[in-house]
Design brief:
two-stranded parallel sheet; CDP-OH_P_trans
């Protein structure tokens, strides 16, 4: 069975990217740099190759965390800080990722390869990057394995889900004055650089003390003197609330202009809190201890499995967008997460021990199996969708080639010229 129904394939040819970028940083600072950067790439390099190269930088960053901070995956939980220079490489890798992510669309237009496949590929890489950066940024902020990291992941994935939901209902991608792909990434790069200079423990500094406001009674009376890292989490919650309001405003406006019901799209937000509730219920199970998984080496595999399931969920949303198909309400991996959450909470629900996760060793096996199944599910989705789109449109994924009307493979730009000449 394919992911794209036969009747929806024709909609792939109707797809056209639409986007709005209101970021001042993008317009006046990064935009000119991106415009210059794309000219350095030969036109024989496919845009998806650039996108994948950017994701590889993030994967290398993630690999250095595992290699230079093995305690993060041990019972000690990051008791030993990795070398300071690692954080500078994380900043460089993320900056490269952002740069490549920004120019892949420009390269697509230069090479005549713009289309729904690039949209799918770009969003897929962004979804993976979101989870990995939360883990890396959590380590840089000295949050490590904690509920703060869980909250950060939920908020970050929530912002990504909102953007995808908004694009599905409005038909275009909105990047506001403060967006994750621009300002959000720049802020994380700043965190990495600061940690490189001052170390992760710097972020434990009480915020009011850092601002020299800890002696101002009217402020200390109402504002707790929490660490800079916790203040950053509070700021993230404000950003999420702002994104919810602005995203719905854009959807409401689009639906009113289209003379459609502006409130029904709100129902399509429900799948995300459902998935978050399942994961949090699993993490907060009373078996062994309330934070057993959070405080164990299983924390990273659990978050990675969650991130892969999320990437599959938003991937299907983008696919529905480019094929003009109904909104995907359900994801099969929910069943697995539901089993994990219910089993772990049997003590709380019916007063008996879990049937599957009844020992630390069984919990370890089950979570690693969750990671494996999530990876298989997502990679299968990616491979199959790429295969269906490339076969129908007659294009390649990682090379600048198209099939002309005779079925022969040619450079994309050459095909565009052939078709233009025939129409003329």
């Amino acid at each position: 069975m394919g992911y794209i129904p036969e009747h929806a394939l024709a909609n792939l040819r109707k797809y056209a990217y639409k986007g709005v970028d209101k970021s001042l940083l993008s317009k006046y600072v990064l935009g000119p740099y991106w415009t210059w950067l794309v000219t350095l790439w030969p036109k024989w390099v496919a845009p998806n190759t650039i996108t994948l190269s950017g994701l590889m930088m993030v994967l290398i960053n993630f690999a250095t965390l595992i290699y230079y901070d093995p305690d993060y995956l041990s019972e000690r939980g990051g008791a030993t800080d990795p070398p300071r220079w690692i954080y500078f490489t994380w900043a460089a890798g993320l900056f490269i990722y952002q740069s490549f992510d920004a120019i892949d669309g420009k390269q697509a237009r230069r090479t005549g390869m713009a289309g729904p496949l690039g949209e799918m590929f770009d969003h897929g890489c962004d979804a993976i990057n979101t989870t990995l950066e939360v883990i890396l940024a959590g380590r840089a902020l000295n949050l490590g394995r904690s509920w703060w990291t869980v909250a950060s992941l939920a908020a970050s994935l929530g912002c990504f889900y909102l953007t995808t939901w908004e694009e599905y209902h409005t038909g275009q991608l909105y990047l506001g004055t403060f967006s994750g792909p621009v300002e959000g990434i720049v802020m994380i790069i700043g965190i990495y650089v600061t940690t490189g200079f001052l170390g992760p423990t710097f972020w434990d500094t009480p915020t009011l003390t850092f601002l020299h406001l800890d002696n101002v009674e009217i402020i200390t009376k109402y504002i707790p003197n929490k660490g800079l890292n916790e203040a950053a989490m509070a700021a993230g919650a404000v950003v999420l609330a702002y994104n919810i309001v602005t995203s719905y405003f854009n959807v409401y406006k689009a639906k009113v202009e289209a003379k459609e019901g502006p409130f029904r799209p709100l129902l399509h937000l429900l799948p995300f809190p459902i998935t978050v509730a399942l994961q949090v219920a699993w993490l907060s199970s009373p078996s062994f201890s309330r934070s057993f998984i959070v405080n164990s080496p299983l924390f990273m595999p659990f978050l990675c499995a969650w991130g892969l399931q999320f990437a599959h969920q938003v991937g299907r949303m983008i696919l529905a967008h480019v094929t003009k198909e109904p909104f995907p309400w359900f994801d099969a991996m929910w069943i697995w997460s539901l089993i994990g959450a219910i089993d772990a909470n049997l003590l709380r629900l019916i007063g008996r021990q879990p049937l599957i996760q009844h020992s630390p060793e069984n919990v370890k096996i089950f979570i690693h199996l969750s990671l494996a199944l999530s990876l298989i599910s997502y990679t299968t989705f990616c491979a199959q969708v790429i295969n269906e789109i490339t076969n129908y449109l007659g294009i390649a994924c990682f090379t600048v080639r198209k099939k002309d009307e005779s079925g022969a493979w040619r450079r994309a730009a050459s095909v565009d010229k052939i078709i233009t000449n025939k129409k003329a």
